[in-house]
Structure prediction request, 205 residues.
Amino acid sequence: HTLQLVVHHALKNQTISKCSAGARNIVEHFKKSELACSKLKLKQQQMETAQNMLVEDHWPVTAVLSDPMVIQKGKHHLDLKPEQWHLLDELKQALEPFVLATDFMSGEQYVTVSSLPPLERGLQKTMNSVTFDMAAVQAFHNSAIEQLNNKWEGVKNLKTDSSEPNIVLIASALDPRFRRMKFLSTEEMLNVQRINTDTCSGGQG
Prediction:
């Protein structure tokens, strides 16, 4: 849910919204038009492009949308401009880390709460390592990083008072998958270990 809030807030960009609306119109047109859909499949076969990769391989879409049999004369031209296709391609790349993180956090065969700290650090590392050509996508990217910091502030902060520890970090430290705590600095790792020791000692007393 937090990841969705981060993405939705960051997507509030006029250029991205306009481009996304255009893309939705294209998808809706192909859904409603059997002729357009059949021509698209044929064109994709001819161009040897994947049927589910409309953004990466958009040339079949452009070709079909320029067909007067598909788009009636006088109707609004549905196809996107080259820079809009490029924007969608970059936006897809920018969203991929969030898709992967959401899929992981939706898993039911493993514990996820202890995964939050390494997941957050991993997202930050991935996002800080890339930049984008399109200004709107870079703005989305920057906003997403800022939102991620704000939303998950509690996940990153380690309270030094063992009477009120950061339960999520403690859970990560106790999880065999993350017990080396590579997502923490040396100082943070030592603090977690100390709090764990204090907590266990208090429980025994």
User: Anything to note?
Assistant: The radius of gyration is 23 Å.
